[in-house]
Specification:
This protein is an alpha/beta fold. The longest helix is centred in the C-terminal third of the chain and has 19 residues. Strands 13-12-11-10-6-9-8-7-14 form a nine-stranded mixed β-sheet. Strands 2-1-3-4-5 form a five-stranded parallel β-sheet, with helices on both faces. The radius of gyration is 21 Å and the shape is globular. Helix 1 packs across helix 12. The structure holds nicotinamide-adenine-dinucleotide.
Length: 378
């Protein structure tokens, strides 16, 4: 039995949204042990939280630079092997770059960096490091998303002609209408979030889901943002027309002011033979649509699913697995890669996905600011 992988956590403290998802996901398949962390920029909070979740405090560091310096002094077989970066966006690049330069594996939250240029610098650093790098586009870990990818690859839809991905949330609604509140949230501060709020935070997930499931790339886009208030520098809503080929077109719709919406990520993909429809809030139902047959519903865990999909379920059909399991599937793929075991390239989003994401985000902003013009992606 291989030993557990030594995991370090950056950000994701008790005050955070995403920390619990990574902590639980990392433990689900029994592959990781958290051995070190900087959960919080405040050292006392950091220590308190480590005690609360029972992580030994001897490797709870006062800041990120100290974590790297102290871990590098340890023998390799005791040192943190992989760090998960769960901080606000502006810290992803400096942290990931330093980790790669020092030979660590990295699991990085999205958006991978705050600029496309940083993303490309990171890509070069990753090539030199040769370590494992994953970007946590969480939704790619769902068994039914993996099933879509594998069935599309096998030709179930025929030639694809229309794609529609929608990510609607309403959480910024109560904040955006209050001048003081909208100037204090990090997601609306370009210095901390990057150049985009809605597309950078959630539109990028929808973009990734389209490229992950179809295996196609978005070639160009035209974007229209809504900022809602003149003093707000960041988009909180946007509609993006996309072209993936001469006759493959679609739309990405994102909103953080879709009143009452929770985590409404959904994708529809239509081809000449059939269509797929999937919704994140009901992730265990994949609808296959046809002109000639009744609707078919695929569900996780059944033998008719692909190997990649089945690899993402742990219980027999009918035991609903959800977002924690989806993230756990990404951690499982990363564990296999770190151990040098075989894995499918659909098991976790990579540096390439991270770079594509920043290419997309910057293109949406350029399109909107340029007067809603078509912009090409690299
Ligand atoms: N994959 C997903 O579906 C998903 C969902 C939500 C958030 N995210 C991403 O996760 C990241 C964090 O988002 P969140 O909502 O958890 O943010 P948050 O503001 O809720 O939490 C941020 C955490 O980082 C800590 N932190 C801040 N500065 C730090 C520093 N210098 N050193 C160490 N810790 C520091 C804070 O104390 C806090 O614990 C963002 O990049 C966001 O885009 C991804």
């Amino acid at each position: 039995m291989p030993k557990k992988i030594r995991l370090g956590i950056l950000g994701g403290g008790g005050d955070s949204l995403i920390g619990v998802l990574h902590r639980v996901a990392s433990h689900i398949n029994d592959n990781y042990q958290i051995v070190g962390a900087v959960f919080n920029p405040d050292y006392e909070h950091n220590l308190d939280f480590a005690r609360e979740i029972d992580v030994p405090t001897d490797r709870i560091y006062k800041d990120f630079d100290t974590l790297v310096a102290e871990e590098m002094k340890l023998p390799k077989d005791q040192r943190i092997q992989v760090c998960a970066i769960l901080t606000p966006n502006f810290l992803h690049f400096p942290m990931a770059k330093k980790l790669l330069d020092n030979g660590f594996h990295v699991i990085c939250e999205k958006p991978m960096t705050t600029t496309y240029e940083e993303a490309r610098i990171l890509q070069e650093a990753h090539k030199k490091a040769g370590t494992v790098f994953a970007v946590t586009h969480t939704y790619t870990g769902y068994p039914m998303v993996r099933q879509m990818r594998e069935m599309i690859k096998a030709g179930a839809l025929g030639k694809i002609h229309k794609v529609d991905a929608r990510y609607y949330q309403g959480w910024i609604n109560p904040i955006i209408h209050d001048k003081e509140k909208r100037s204090s949230v990090w997601r609306l501060d370009p210095k901390k979030a990057g150049i985009s709020s809605c597309m950078g935070d959630i539109g990028v997930h929808a973009f990734n889901l389209i490229e992950y499931t179809t295996g196609l790339q978005v070639k160009s886009l035209l974007c229209d943002f809504n900022y809602l208030y003149a003093d707000n520098q960041m988009d909180v809503d946007g509609t993006v027309l996309i072209r993936m080929g001469d006759h493959i077109k679609g739309v990405i719709r994102g909103s953080q002011v879709a009143t009452g919406e929770e985590n409404g990520l959904a994708i529809s993909i239509y081809g000449e033979k059939a269509g797929f429809r999937w919704e994140q809030e009901n992730p265990n139902f994949l609808y296959k649509l046809s002109d000639t047959e009744p609707v078919q519903i695929y569900k996780p865990g059944h033998a008719y699913n692909s190997a990649l999909s089945l690899d993402g379920t742990k219980l027999p059909p009918g035991h609903p697995e959800g977002i924690f399991d989806s993230m756990a599937n990404i951690y499982l793929g990363v564990a296999r890669a770190i151990r040098g075991a075989q894995y499918n390239d659909g098991e976790f989003p990579t540096m390439t996905d991270g770079v594509r994401g920043l290419n997309f985000i910057e293109a949406t902003v350029a399109s909107h600011k340029g007067g809603n013009v078509w912009v090409s992606l690299d």
